[in-house]
Every structure is written in structure tokens, then in C-alpha cells.
Amino acid sequence: MSVRRRLVRSVAAVVALALVAGCGGSAGRQPHLGQTIRIGLNLEQSGELAWYGDSALKGVQVAVDAVNAAGGIDGRPIEMVVADNGSQPGRTVVLSAQMMSQDKALAVLGPVTENLFRATATVADRHEIVAVSTLACSSEVLAMTKQAPHPYLFRSCLGYRQHGAAMANFAVDELDARTAVVLRFTEGAYANFAEGFSERFSAAGGQVVTDDVILPDDTDLWRYAARLVEAPADVVYVAAPPWETGHLIAQLRESGLAQPVLGIDELDDPALLEAAGAGALNRVYFSTDYAPWDTGSPRLAQYIESYRNTWDGADPSRSSALAHDATLMIIEAIRRAREPTGVEVQRAMVETQGLSGVTGRLRVTSDHETIKDALVVELVDGAPTAVTPVAP
């Protein structure tokens, strides 16, 4: 299931509601001195986006349990204030304001999905309380922090453009690629991936010989194979969902083309294997910020074990892992804050450096970009094998 293909909601109308919901003054300048430290969880637990909220809550619980078992923050346990926003913009905004003002949350995690998260920006700023998303990874989120600005918005995921840049580095440094074909969906998130790849690949001395569009549900992609036969390129970078990407790969291989195909984080979806077939999925790579196949990471192995112990043997998802690390970002910022106020937590969040999470060692830049290595996963007969960390 991909949030990038969901119907885009009207953010402007919800921001207007946020102005009303957030008019109660700044909660972020009031010290939080209770017996517990409250973190709000504004999550999509019902409605069309419920999977995202449910998986995020599970990752948060693992992180909070570990911190509380170790004594909390200066002896104060973390208390989670959980609310279901129903995947609805209006309810999301109201809940954000309630958590920050009435519930006295020192920070809020969520919403998970981008359009809902962007709708809460004004509320976070008015109350001066940090809000962190796990999957608001597009360039538009950072543009909000630069232009408005929205100083209280953060995210735990690596941005889509950074994923594209990391894959360009991998193509040049690991595959010795000098020419590339770029194929993309036109939607914003997919364009972010493709733009990041093309800019970095060109800056590294490579040449993008073709940059073309794949349309949704287009599975007759032989034209691209024909063009590659006539004008070969070293690699093919595809910023598209797994179903269309899988059909493209199958048709490239049936045409005798063996160039490496590089893709995005959605290629861990079973739809790729269904569309392409295992035999076609060799010399295929995708970037992600969570790779449970990375057997060389003790930190990741410990997290997976804790998650399984907490959730009846279930395996964590990327969404769960990013929520776990978003929780660590919040907790460590609270721990380093000079006093327990939203303003000081925000200052500490911007200063995050070298935080060890299950999705990598991360830092936060002055414009609120979360920087960490992308993980490039190689598929062999459709199965994930090698995992290579690559800097964006």
C-alpha cells in the first residue's frame, strides 16, 4: 500500500482550521513539571490510512518501553497520549491543538502521512511544540520550513531527493555508471526521487541520456526497451510504483537487456515480484532507510527481537522502524533540553547529531533535514541479499 498514490487532500482548508484551533497561545514556553513526560501520538488508527498509524504505534511502544525500563528521563517515565485522527484532516488539526494545550504534551509524533502532517504545521508553530512525522519525506515539507517558516516540524525519514542522490552515488561509485536513463511517475514524490538522482548523477560527471514519464497503470512498456537497444545506457533509474516497475523490468529482460535497474523504497512490495517474476529480478537495486536483511547491524537485530517479543512474533515494518526512531529523536531532544519546554526541545532537536537509530545513525540539519545513509538493497532472483549503506 502506497501513501503516495492516495487522493491528495486540500491542505489549504485545513490550515485555515488550524489557525482557529491554535489560537490559545503558546504552550511551548510553559515548563512541563509533572511526574511523567507526555508525548502525544496523533495517529491514523482508523479510516483509509489506518495501517500507517497502527504500525507507527507499535514502533513507538518498543522505544518507550526500553526508555522507561531504563528509568525514563531523569527518573520521569514517558507517558504516551494516544489519539486516533481517523485519517481526517479536520480531526487531525483539532487533536494536535488539544495534545499541545490541554494534554500538555511536550512533543507530538504524527500524523504519519504527509498531507495530514502538513495540515498541523500552524498548530505546532502557534503552540511552539515539536511535531515529528515518519513518512512526510517530500521536498514540500522542507520548503514549508524554509519559506513560512515552520520551525517546529521535523521528520525521521530520509527525504525522497536524498534517496535519489544516494542511488546516484551508488551508480557512479559501485556500478561505475556514466550514462543513465531516468523513468518516472509525474506525481510529486516520484518526481523528488528522480530529480535527486538526476542532479547528483550529473554533478558526479554522469549523463542522463533520457528522462521520460511512465503513466499510472501503464504496463505496456516495450518502447523503453526498444530505445535502450538503440541507445544503450549503463543503468536505468525508475521512480515509479512496484507494479509498473516490475512490468518494465520484465520487458527489459525479455528484450535481452541486462543493465542494472535502480529503484525506490517501494520495491520491497510483493507486487514487484508478481509483475516481473523472480527470474527477471537480478541486477535490481532499491534504496530504503530500513532493511531487516542487514545482518551486520547488531542495533537492528536487537530492535527486531524486542519488537517480536512485544508484538507476538510479528516482524516490524519500515513504518514501525521510522516511528521508533522518531520517538528516539524526541526523547533524546527532551533529555538534552535545558528545561522541559517546547521551545527548548525544539532547540535541542535542531542540534541532533549522531543519534543511533534502527534506521541508521542520523543528524538533523538547520533546515530540519534528517540526514543518514540510505540502504541500497540488491535483489537476486527477487530475494533481498546484499545491503550497502550509501551517503546521500
What key attributes describe this structure?
Rossmann fold, 392 residues, elongated, 2 domains
Can you walk me through this structure?
With 392 residues, the chain is of the alpha/beta class. The chain folds into two domains: 3-158 and 299-358, Rossmann fold; 161-288 and 374-390, 3-Layer(aba) Sandwich (Rossmann fold), CATH 3.40.50. It contains 14 helices and 15 strands. Strands 7-6-8-9-10-14-15 form a seven-stranded mixed beta sheet. Strands 2-1-3-4-5 form a five-stranded parallel beta sheet, sandwiched between helices. Helix 2 links the parallel strand 1 and strand 2. Helix 1 (11-21) runs parallel beside helix 5 (121-127). The protein is elongated and about 70 Å long. The two termini are 26 Å apart.
Element-level helix/strand string = HEHEHEHHEHEHEHEHEHEHEHHHEEEEE
Categorize the overall geometry: elongated
Round the Cα radius of gyration to an integer and report it: 21 Å
Helix content: 40-55%
Question: Short description, anyone?
Answer:
This protein is an alpha/beta fold.
Topology:
Blueprint: H1 11-21, E1 37-43, H2 50-69, E2 78-84, H3 89-101, E3 107-109, H4 114-119, H5 121-127, E4 130-133, H6 139-147, E5 153-155, H7 160-173, E6 179-184, H8 188-203, E7 207-213, H9 222-230, E8 235-239, H10 242-254, E9 261-263, H11 270-276, E10 284-288, H12 298-310, H13 318-336, H14 342-350, E11 355-357, E12 360-364, E13 370-371, E14 374-380, E15 383-390
Parallel strand pairs: 1-2, 1-3, 3-4, 4-5, 6-7, 6-8, 8-9, 9-10
Antiparallel strand pairs: 10-14, 11-12, 12-13, 14-15
Helix pairs in contact: 1-3, 1-5, 2-13, 7-8, 10-11, 13-14
